[in-house]
Amino acid sequence: MMCSRLSQKVAIVTGSSSGLGRAIALAYAREGAAVVCADLNREARAEIPDEARLCTDDAITLEGGRSIFVKTDVSKAQDFEDLVEKTVKAFGRLDILVNNAGISIESGRAPTGVHETPESVWDTTMAVNAKSVFLGSKYAIKQMLQQKKHDSGHGGWIVNIASAHGLVAAPACPSYAASKAAVVNLTRQVALDYAEHKIHCNVICPGYTQTAIFRDTIKNMSSYDEIVAKHPMGLGVPEDIVGAAVFLASDEARWITGTKMVIIKQFKPNPGRGDKGESRLRIPSRACSKGSTCSNCKRADVLCKGGGNQELRFRFSGLSQRPSSTTPNPEQGSSSATQTIGKSPYRTTSQSPESSRQGHLSESSTPDLQSEHQNITPAFASPYQDHVQADDATQHNNTTPLNKSSSLEHDATPVPFDYCDPRAHFRSYILATMEAQPCILFAILAVSARHLEAIGEEYFNSNEYERECLRIMIPMLNDKYAMREPDDSLFVLALLLRCLEEMTSQDDHHSAITHTVSASLLLRMSLHNSNPSDFSNAAMAVALRQEIYIANRVKRPIELEGRNCGIDDSLTPAPDFIWTFRIMSHAARVTNYAYSIDSRSQTLWDQLWGYLEDWGRARPPSFNPLNHINLDSCSDTLSSENCNLAANGARIFPEIYYLSDCPVAGNQYLELCKILLLAHDPRTPSLGLGRTKLIQIQEEKIRQAVRVVCGVSLSNPEYMVARILAGLVIGMAGELFRDASETTQLLDIVSKAEMHLGWPGIKVSPKLQELWA
User: Fold this and answer.
1) Can you say whether the dihedral through the CA atoms of 514, 519, 520, 522 is positive or negative?
2) Which terms are listed as keywords in the entry (predicted)?
3) 3-class SS letters over 233-265
4) What pLDDT does 325 receive?
5) Model confidence over 495-550: pLDDT tens digits?
6) What proportion of the chain, given as a percentage, has pLDDT over 70?
7) What is the helix (H) or strand (E) element at residue 742, kind and residue range?
8) 93: left (phi over 0), alpha (psi -120 to 50) or beta
9) What residues contact residue 251 under an 8 Å CB cut-off, 6+ apart?
């Protein structure tokens, strides 16, 4: 959700393509600022999968923000002058400058003292780390003085990024430490000189932060534990810094200037070289054996420079080709994110001062995927049937999903968007447009490949397909906003990318659970339609289903509502799919009631529960089960005990069979609503007699609702979405189950439901396994 702490402000962020600069740029955009991303290369370093997948300015655009990229060498005055000029031309003014760009050449080399440091290393480090702050401040302040002050009455905000090593010494990094110390003092000088113009200048001094530079740093340290020991509360991540950067650029910091803000988890500087009894950062004294990957490279998630096994080399570099013992790895030159698909993502190494500064790129050769697409027939549009026709001469040993992804059966497809849609809008559209719209082809390939990777089939080029899809989609998105109403292709692509993101693994420290194509962006797309089509309504209904799942996983409200999807919430006679959409829309309302920051009123709770009862009475007979076993004792009142057990005690869940997907989904959402309302009943007393008994009754009702949802899923296994919803309710109420006969099967259900998910933040099976151990 877009916030407004930086609304009506225009910001430049240098070094924005990766690491801390990227995190700050994204945070500024989410707070309402227009962001100019400045860097030598638009593409991120491929060592960080989340960054390599999508350029920073594209990520901001997809979230509904305003952003442009300007190629900038921050050590050159002309580049900085041009950067400010292009910023003003694009957005009319400049309010915020974040001097974030920096290098650490010494971290990519063996530790050296001053007498061992080449002059070129010193000059380059000073130019990028210190001179750039001078140049940035010079041209930014010139513009800030010329323009009208911001509505707040302030002249501008400069946020410099230094380092804890600008405050304390560290072994063997003289150039880096000196350059960062210069930034700290220059900050004070600028703050003093321009305070009368209400131009704020502050500096952030982070400790070790897990960015691509950090991964280079750790390679030359004898022990990862030595760095961790400096930070008793753990190492930092970019998200730990962005809050300070937002604050210092906001009106909340109106009385703050010339301040150094140390963002660190209790830093302990190393002793000098003479303290032999103490640990210090040093290069391993033992030469590399050229054998298995050593702990330093493994901990840093980087390529082993000395040797190591080939599989780890491919695993950690994020290369797109499936590893094999015969795969070549030639050194090649730079390539952009818009390169012909099939080129592998690249990584940056620090072999020399110039390469550290400009980016020394290497690639692994991969098959030419363009040639493999030439013989695809229009029938490939179906994600359910095996219609792929590819020239045998262009097959590359299963390195692409073309020979497998389309053979997924309907019940195993990773994109069941036509669930509860009798008109099958998505399948019909994809079949009709696949040949004419390669962007949709790449999106389908990406999702199919990612699904096969998730279930452990093989390793495919899913990242490359996704990148090519985004390369085509983002200009389309910008054009649609500016020129005309969005067509159906954008909705298809948006939903495919949202599904793909949920299947994409993240770094352990990545805590954001949000789609790049956010719900608010989808909502704006739908609002551009003066006359929404059935297809756009179907697309928004799929997005609503996705939002209900994520919102209940992370306990937050939902931005979408049923009315945004054209859903009629009345209880008048209608087809089955309308009745399913009605209860799904109600599940969104109940979710918002459960997780809203507003107080929960008893009146609203009664209204929400009343709709459940009315829906249950008015729904068509087709929503009754075709057959059931042990269902009679599990009535809608959910008050009986042990209704899920058969006479012999072998059955755990009721068997409930339905004719189609609509009653399956409708009855599962009904139980989800009951779980949420029972868990958030405002009449539950905080203290007093009877509280314990009431809570026990409510918890048993919740357990019975979970059993019904699981029973429906197990009895109708052809519907993958039903399995996913079963996994959701188990994650929500898993702590209420203790019996080993139940928890074993519950864990099996939730593990299978989460098999396709990559976001660690929405996986609960590891926690449940620990709970039930």
Assistant:
1) positive
2) NADP, Nucleus
3) CCCECCHHHHHHHHHHCCHHHCCCCCCEEEECC
4) 32
5) 777 777 777 665 444 444 555 566 566 666 666 555 667 777 888 888 888 889 88
6) 64
7) helix 740-753
8) beta
9) 5, 152, 154
CB–CB of 44/71 below 8 Å? no
Neighbours of 601 (CB within 10 A): 11
- What is the pLDDT confidence band of residue 235, given thresholds at 50, 70 and 90? low
714 φψ region: left (φ > 0), alpha (ψ -120 to 50), beta (else): alpha
* Rounded distance between C-alpha atoms, residue 55 and residue 25, angstroms: 11
DSSP state of 129: I
Q: Work out the mean pLDDT of the chain and round it to a whole number.
A: 72
Q: Closest by alpha carbon to 318, among 170, 456, 504?
A: 504
* Sequence ranges of the domains in the chain: 10-209+223-263, 295-362, 368-566, 587-773
Mean pLDDT calculated for residue range 448-461: 70
| pLDDT tens for each residue of 573-587 | 999 999 999 999 999
**Claim: this prediction has a pTM higher than 0.90:** no
Alpha-carbon gap, residue 736 to 747, rounded angstroms: 13
The tokens describing 184, both together, are: 């700290």
Instruction: Specify the higher pLDDT residue, 566 or 52.
Output: 566
CA distance 329 to 327: 7
CATH superfamily of the 10-209+223-263 domain? NAD(P)-binding Rossmann-like Domain (3.40.50.720)
3-class DSSP state of 276: coil
Token match 């020394």: residue?
A: 360
* pLDDT higher at 461 or 253: 253
In the predicted model, is pLDDT for residue 99 greater than 50? yes
Q: Is the pLDDT of residue 209 over 80?
A: no
Give the number of other CB atoms < 10 A from CB of residue 550. 20
Known catalytic residue at 176: yes
Is 107:173 a contact under the CB 8 Å cutoff?
yes
Q: Rounded to an integer, what distance in angstroms lies between the CA atom of residue 545 and that of residue 568?
A: 16
Buried (b) or exposed (e) across 377-406, using 16+ Cβ within 10 A? eeebbbbbeeebebeeebebeebbbbbbbb
Q: Where are the beta strands (DSSP E) in 305-395?
A: 347-349, 360-362
> Which of 28, 176, 658, 669 is flagged as catalytic?
176
- The SS3 call for residue 629 is strand
Highest mean pLDDT among 475-484, 520-529, 713-722: 713-722
Do the beta carbons of residue 659 and residue 620 sit within 8 Å?
no
Contact 668, 549 (CB under 8 A): no
If phi > 0 it is left, if psi is from -120 to 50 it is alpha, else beta; for residue 258 that is left
What value, to the nearest 5°, has the Cα angle with vertex 541 and ends 540 and 544?
85
Contacts of 373 (CB under 8 A, 6+ apart): 402, 438, 441
- The rounded distance, in Å, linking the Cα atoms of 542 and 672 is 17
Alpha carbon distance 518, 480 (integer Å): 17
Pinpoint the alpha helices (H) of 258-407.
295-300, 310-317, 353-358, 369-373
Burial class (CB in 10 A: 0-12, 13-18, 19+), 31: buried
Q: How far is CA 1 from CA 30, 50, 350, 519, in A?
A: 7, 20, 38, 8
What is the distance between the alpha carbons of residues 413 and 503, in angstroms, rounded to a whole number? 13
